[in-house]
Amino acid sequence: MIPVTVQTLIVSAAPSPSIIVLQPVEEIVQEGKSRIIPIWVGVNEATQMGIALEKARFSRPMTHDLFLDALTNLDAQIDHVVINDVQGATFFARLTLRQHDRLIDLDARPSDALALAVRQKAPIYIEEDVLERASFPYVLRRTEPEASEAELSEFKKFLEGLAPEDFEG
């Protein structure tokens, strides 16, 4: 299993899908090159991920907050998430809970599992074969320190040019 982090979230208006972009942790520190794993999600799922990333709080609990509150009251927590398969453009995930010394493994949509992991700061992993099949190379071109805004713009253009069909093969 390879540790990954949520690199960015690109939210699109319906009917276009939004994209959660994962990146292997060890590649973040490497200068100049990386791989990304784009996961297409719906607008509602992207909204939930955005709430998690921004650590937003509301006066009433959202569904993911309710789930985490229930876990807390059951003396359990999110142990980790694994993106364990990809078929075409559809990703699959396992959400592992820890209750004392007991691990509970659940099938989950990646968008839900990732939103929960981000909220609880739980580790996120991807199976190595899934990383190999679903990742795209991304080369960062650093010519000057001010280039970060240009790099971000170039990266967003690259992601917007991807389509779910690019995964079929």
Automatic annotation (TrEMBL):
Domain BFN, chain residue ranges per copy: 1-138
Coiled coil: none
InterPro entries given in the database record: BFN_sf (IPR036104), Bi_nuclease_dom (IPR003729)
Domain of life: Bacteria
UniProt cross-references to SUPFAM superfamilies, sorted A to Z: Hypothetical protein TM0160
GO molecular function, one term: nuclease activity
PANTHER family reported for this sequence: VON HIPPEL-LINDAU DISEASE TUMOR SUPPRESSOR, VON HIPPEL-LINDAU PROTEIN
Record-given protein name: BFN domain-containing protein
Organism: Eggerthella lenta (strain ATCC 25559 / DSM 2243 / CCUG 17323 / JCM 9979 / KCTC 3265 / NCTC 11813 / VPI 0255 / 1899 B)
